UniProtKB/TrEMBL annotation, chain A:
Claim: Zinc is one of the keywords in the record: yes
GO biological process terms, semicolon-separated: protein maturation
Lineage start: Bacteria, Thermotogati, Deinococcota, Deinococci, Deinococcales
InterPro entries noted in UniProt: HypA/HybF (IPR000688)
GO terms of molecular function: nickel cation binding; zinc ion binding
Descriptive protein name: Hydrogenase maturation factor HypA
Pfam families for this protein: HypA
TrEMBL record, chain B:
Stated family: Belongs to the SIMIBI class G3E GTPase family. HypB/HupM subfamily.
Family matches, as Gene3D superfamilies: P-loop containing nucleotide triphosphate hydrolases
InterPro entries per UniProt: CobW/HypB/UreG_nucleotide-bd, Hyd_mat_HypB, P-loop_NTPase
Domain CobW/HypB/UreG nucleotide-binding positions: 39-199
One GO biological process term: protein maturation
NCBIfam families: hypB
Keywords, ordered alphabetically: GTP-binding, Hydrolase, Metal-binding, Nickel, Nucleotide-binding, Zinc
Domain of life: Bacteria
One GO MF term: GTP binding
The keyword Metal-binding is annotated on this UniProt entry: yes
CDD domains: HypB
Protein name per its UniProtKB record: Hydrogenase accessory protein HypB
Amino acid sequence: MHEASIALSLIGVATEALHQHGGERITALTVRIGQWSAVVPEALQAAFPAAAEGTPLQGARLSIVSVPGVGACPAHGPVELQLALGLRCPVCGLPTPTLLQGDELELDELELA
Amino acid sequence: MTSIPAPRIVTVRQNILKDNDRVAADNRRTFQSAGVRAINLVSSPGAGKTALLERTLKDLQGQLGMAVAVGDLATENDAARLRQWGVQAEQIVTGTICHLDAGMVQAVLPRFELAALDVLFLENVGNLVCPASYDLGEAARAVLISTTEGEDKPLKYPTMFNTADVVVITKMDIAEAVEFDLSLCRENIDRARPGVQVIELSSKKGAGLEAWYSFVRGLPLP
Ligand SMILES: [Zn+2]
């Protein structure tokens, strides 16, 4: 369970952005979590309110967008990966060692007040 | 009537772990300029990280300058076990945190004389999930899996295996007794990380250690 640590890092990055944009507090935020990032969205959602307490993000609405993995198949180009198949093209089974997306752990948008 | 200002939406697009990654980059520069190869060891609890380290320290003593930073939730036991081989072992007590991060490693580095070292082992907390997200600035990440854990670990923890530079299968001496299916395990590892080097060994009996030692030395393999 490292989602508590991730939540604290998220609050740090968001607070920095808040100050850069001259806002008072954050009322909502969107993060993008790749399915290959080892972070469980539900666990992050659960950890967030306690981590946000006493910060400018207290009470903010957290939206999590889960980003599926996309690998580069040598034969089929970009293909959506399935966790159970690993880094293999679901069509032909060739290795797709390069992730085109799906490992992100990203603060995307903030709603400032 | 006062008008309520509309909420302002701003696009940030920033890596949540950017602070960790910045410190990891610092660590990497520190290791590179001192000529130290840092190896991050990750596995489930009980997969045999400490046993493999003990054996490695014993066998490579006098050939390589080695030291260990050990991440553990509370105790000092592993570091004490490793010190008996005459190397410096520093404990990083992580408290409730289930992984090492780059800052914890950076904080312990001043205790080592890095210029005198060839290899610094970073023994991570026993956990196959959380350490995957944290770059420590290591040169290589070694993922250990023991024959007692079953063959499907690589599919259950794809991210950890996906970031491995080498996968070490430990406790091969009891593989038969626990009915471990080696070819299935290798197939699953190759799914999670196509083409990754896999080393099978037994720290207890000593089988397969040469391949691991070549990896530790950073030598190209035959
Ligand atoms: Zn394909």
